[in-house]
Specification:
Distance between the termini: 18 Å
Number of strands: 8
Strand content: 25-35%
Helix content: 25-40%
Radius of gyration: 15 Å
Mean pLDDT: 91
Low-confidence stretches: none
Strand order of the largest sheet: 1-2-3-4-5-6-8-7
Number of helices: 5
Largest sheet: 8 strands, mixed
Length: 178
Amino acid sequence: MTLVSPTELTADGVVLRRFVPGDSAAFGDFMARPENTRFMTFPEQMRNRQAAAQIVAETIAAYANPGAAMALAICRPDDRTIIGACGAFETGETEIEIFYLIFEQYRGCGYAKAAAKALVRHFRRTKPQHDLTARVDQEHFVSRRILEGLGFVDKGPCTVNGRPSRLMLLKCRTSSTT
């Protein structure tokens, strides 16, 4: 199975669009500052400008050959400048994990919730037989509240790249398909 990145999704005051090469600098600035990435489940070696540029380049290349992961830039409707990123990857035959991050100067404005909600809607429409998950740093209470507001349930502790986290689950599959 593959996850095809839509060209664009719009919802609740955000636009999720495919990455473009011009996003590398802003994404790199974000990834290079530890205060921004403290709750991210990315491995430490991915938290720098060079790795961020590689992520953007590989993401753009993957649009032509979809695979088990997808990523999109988060923008405001009136300004197509990247303010965050979101996406998903397959973690099982009937499970997709979503993720989202917002650049620090745009936090607290509802963009993370809007992006997560857009991803949930997208996958409920395009992959209705898949449950959705998110792995959230155990100290990232804001992200847990966002997910709980969208119907995700805390399924308990897990570890991601050596970091204590919580597994959040949104059951989408009907019981007859399990």
